[in-house]
Design goal:
single chain; mainly beta; four-stranded antiparallel β-sheet; 1 helix; 4 strands; about 10% helix
Length: about 60
Amino acid sequence: MWTIGIARMEADGTLILDLNPRPDSSSGQTRFVYPPDHRDYAMILRHLGGMRPGETKAVPPF
């Protein structure tokens, strides 16, 4: 399965997404940080299929 990066959940529930611009590249990686009170947090968490603190998952394309 093609992924666009890696997501992890911090102990406080913050989501950290390290996304790649292309599936075959690690250059140009961008980090997005979503604390639990961010307006897009629930949508991102649903897209990831849910997560628990300390968990890491591949991020499917949006």
